[in-house]
Design a protein that fits this description.
Blueprint: H1 2-25, H2 28-38, H3 43-61, H4 69-80, H5 86-101, H6 106-118, H7 127-139, H8 143-162, H9 168-180, H10 184-193, H11 203-214, H12 224-227, H13 234-240, E1 244-248, H14 258-263, E2 266-270, H15 281-284, E3 290-292, H16 295-307, E4 320-323, E5 336-338, H17 352-361, E6 367-371, H18 384-390, H19 393-398, H20 412-424, H21 427-441, E7 444-446, H22 448-454, H23 458-469
Helix pairs in contact: 2-4, 3-4, 3-7, 3-20, 4-5, 5-6, 6-8, 7-8, 7-20, 8-9, 9-10
């Protein structure tokens, strides 16, 4: 059953991309009108749908069909951000055409888009339009310009919330953005103001947990119905409570931290697939008590072990597998449990590493030390050992991933792939959430490489990401 489900999901993604391509072929005016009518002119739903088309536009950049970039990008803004000035969209299109034909001009285009972005007014567009604009700019490497649109998104979300015309999605944008900027009292006031419409929303418990970590002396007095945190499973709590935890990411580790990692009371790893796809034990150790896996990865391992119980033997020594949404109760596989609390990041959902950090902190550990985290500030986001797995045709086909999705080489394709990940994930959100937890909770430590990044300012982090992308 699991095997068939994975295949269906992969096929659906292919059909979904084909459907979007067919819509893009017809004239923009008719395509936009068709989708707007289908989505009942709901501006947030239109913005979400436009983000899917934006991902296709990202893919188009490095392909031989790059001449369609203007058509695709204008369609994205016409559908999801119609209140963004046409002149700005035209400038964006021209910047993309210039970087595509003259990669050495990319840095100059970054400066030019930064200037154009500063002429925009935050009250000229809705929060959903600014969100799409920020993801579009960042997804094509104009990261500092994207952060201006990002700030405007928060300003607009707060205005819409205070005026009483915000949707639930916009309310969450405003609350998570205020938390990110350490405007904790404003975030609490806004949550209390709209406690009735957010009464049973599980994200409220995430805000509560976050506030307890960053300002434990502040009384959080939300309605019990809306903020009651589910009881932590005893096995999870027993493993982590009051323990010193090493959390190992699949990033680059050049120093010998293996002994330090294995000396911790608990060793947790993110997307761990065994020694074959891990670095040398002298660098990252061997133990794995808790394994944070995506649902589809856990499903894939379960399918393999049902067919061959001896496969994936690394999982035998794991005490707990933490997935994102699903619980798997099956033989030949450790106890599983979904994340107990989602990280309250701004704009987009958190990456796997940030989710793991926040979820572990919610289990009341004594401390967490981070290894292998580079917060996507390096072109080599993953170490070469796990890249062998990610780049294999079997792994890509089994998990329904795009070909060349992990190509981070110094090329037009590699750079565009590296930048396009920012359309799915707002990396600044992850960085600032972990930075706040590091500075305010006192529970996070890390290797010198990790702490060097966490001690950057937001502007320094943005500049590093843009510099890392180089010329395309």
């Amino acid at each position: 059953m699991l095997k068939r489900r994975a295949k269906i999901e992969s096929d659906f993604k292919h059909r979904d991309r084909l459907r979007r391509l067919l819509i893009l072929i017809i004239p923009r005016k008719f395509g936009v009108a068709f989708l707007r009518r289908r989505l009942k002119d709901n501006y947030e739903r239109c913005s979400l749908e436009a983000t899917k088309f934006l991902l296709d536009t990202n893919t188009l950049y490095s392909s031989k069909f790059h001449f369609l970039l203007p058509k695709f990008l204008r369609f994205v803004f016409a559908l999801g951000a119609p209140d963004i000035q046409t002149d700005f969209v035209n400038q964006f299109v021209q910047a993309l055409k210039t970087t595509r034909s003259n990669p050495q001009k990319r840095k100059a285009m970054c400066e030019e888009m930064l200037i154009h972005s500063r002429f925009l007014q935050s009250n000229s567009a809705s929060s959903s339009s600014w969100k799409l604009t920020s993801l579009a700019l960042s997804g094509f490497g104009f990261i500092r310009a994207g952060q201006i649109a990002r700030r405007y998104c928060l300003d607009s979300a707060i205005r819409e919330a205070n005026s009483g015309r915000a949707s639930t999605r916009t309310l969450h944008l405003a609350i998570s953005g205020l938390l990110e900027n350490r405007r904790f009292e404003e975030a609490q006031d806004l949550t209390l103001k709209y406690s009735n419409c957010l009464e049973f929303d599980p994200r409220i418990s995430s805000y509560t947990n976050y506030l307890k970590l960053v300002c434990p002396n502040t009384l959080v007095s939300y309605d019990r119905k809306s903020t009651s945190v589910p009881l932590t499973p005893s096995v999870y709590s027993n493993i982590t409570r009051d323990k010193k935890i090493a959390l190992v990411a699949p990033g680059v580790v050049d120093s010998s931290y293996g002994d330090d990692i294995d000396r911790h009371e608990v060793v947790a790893r993110i997307k761990y697939f065994g020694a074959e796809y891990s670095l040398d034990p002298t660098k990252v150790g061997t133990r794995c008590d808790i394994n944070f896996l995506l649902d589809q990865f856990a499903e894939s391992i379960i399918i393999d072990r049902n067919q061959n119980p001896g496969s994936h033997s690394f999982i035998n020594k794991t005490r707990l597998v933490v997935t994102r949404k699903k619980s798997f109760n099956t033989e030949n596989f450790p106890l599983t449990h979904p994340l107990s609390s989602l990280a309250p990041t701004f704009l987009t959902t958190a990456t796997s590493g940030t989710m793991a950090i926040f979820d572990l902190l919610c289990q009341n550990p004594k401390s967490i030390k981070l290894f292998g985290f580079n917060f996507y500030s390096l072109r080599g986001q993953y170490n070469q050992s796990i890249m062998k797995l990610y780049e294999s045709k079997k792994f890509i086909r089994k998990n329904g991933l795009r070909k060349s999705g992990f190509d981070y080489s110094m090329s037009q394709r590699g750079s565009s792939v590296c930048a396009s990940a920012r359309t799915n994930h707002d990396y600044l959100s992850d960085f600032l959430l972990v930075k706040n937890l590091y500075e305010l909770s006192g529970l996070i430590d890390g290797t010198p490489e990790v702490l060097e990044i966490l001690n950057l300012t937001a502007d320094e982090y943005d500049a590093r990401l843009e510099e890392m992308l180089g010329d395309w």
